[in-house]
TrEMBL record:
Keywords: Aminotransferase, Transferase. PANTHER family: GLUTAMINE AMIDOTRANSFERASE YLR126C-RELATED (PTHR42695). Coiled coil: none annotated. Residues 89-199 form the Glutamine amidotransferase domain. Transmembrane segments: none annotated. GO terms for cellular component: cytosol. This is Aminotransferase. GO terms for molecular function: transaminase activity.
Length: 250
């Protein structure tokens, strides 16, 4: 019997970042935390390529989608994202049906929640921006991806929308005081997190400095977030664990 090796893997990465600096930074973070080389990752930036098909993920061993730099202040997608989101949904539908391992975070999590029948609300009063203690559910303690993750663990989270209802059949795996649904397992090969497994403390500080006008935190609040933000090794380790435990065993 032959076994797939990590160096043989190909990742289909749907990127929802509009500015060059964040595009490059996020790709670098995915490379670092996955342990893959950049040439193992096919990057489809939805602002450059808004129309693509679910079967474009074929030939890849797993799919990743992260956050968005173009979020808005309501649950409905802004007009300029309608076409890209339709393409993203085609990929997620295909990977779900074909059991292609999929890991989604933040915007990717919210897209999957809505696509598969869950519900979101716009809730700026419970906005998260910084590093937070994430608590595991009982199901997570028995989950192959999360079973050895400390409880609680620190993770980077930045959002004004949150899930209030998961899709039918999805299993809730994590929560925080401000966000009761922080992670779901939609199938044995499909995981999605509201928190960012791909961002560490430095990545967050860089982003909130870059996007500070989008968040009502003010200069003093921005400095406090940067000061209070903690390192997040356990959440960042989830990408590598996903590859080892879900992708390579699929």
């Amino acid at each position: 019997m032959s076994y797939m090796k990590k160096e043989d893997l190909k990742c289909f990465y749907m990127q929802v970042r509009s500015d060059k600096e964040t595009r490059e930074q996020e790709l670098g973070e995915l490379v670092r935390f996955s342990g893959l080389k950049e040439d193992q990752i096919t990057v489809v930036n939805v602002f450059d390529t808004p129309i693509f098909d679910g079967k474009d993920a074929d030939g890849h061993h797993f799919v990743f989608i992260g956050g968005s730099s173009d979020d808005n202040d309501e649950v409905a997608y802004p007009p300029h994202l309608l076409e890209p989101v339709a393409s993203i949904e085609k990929v997620l539908e295909h990977t779900y049906k074909e059991s292609i391992p999929t890991l989604a975070s933040c915007f990717g999590f919210q897209t999957a929640v809505l696509q598969f029948g869950g519900e979101l609300i716009y809730d700026p009063e419970h906005m998260e921006m910084g590093s937070y203690d994430i608590s595991l559910t009982d199901d997570a303690l028995r989950d192959p991806l999360f079973c050895d993750t400390p409880n609680p663990f620190h993770a980077i989270s930045g959002h004004k929308k949150r899930a209030t209802k998961l899709p039918k059949g999805a299993v809730s795996l994590a929560s925080s005081p401000l966000c009761p649904i922080h992670c779901m397992r939609l199938s044995p090969t499909f995981y999605a997190t509201q928190f960012h497994s791909e961002i560490d403390r430095k990545g967050l500080v860089d982003r909130i400095t870059r996007y500070e006008k989008r968040y009502p935190i003010g200069d003093g609040g921005l400095k406090k977030i940067c000061l209070d933000c903690r390192e997040t090794p356990d959440s960042n380790a989830l990408i590598g664990k996903f590859i080892e435990r879900i992708v390579l065993r699929n």
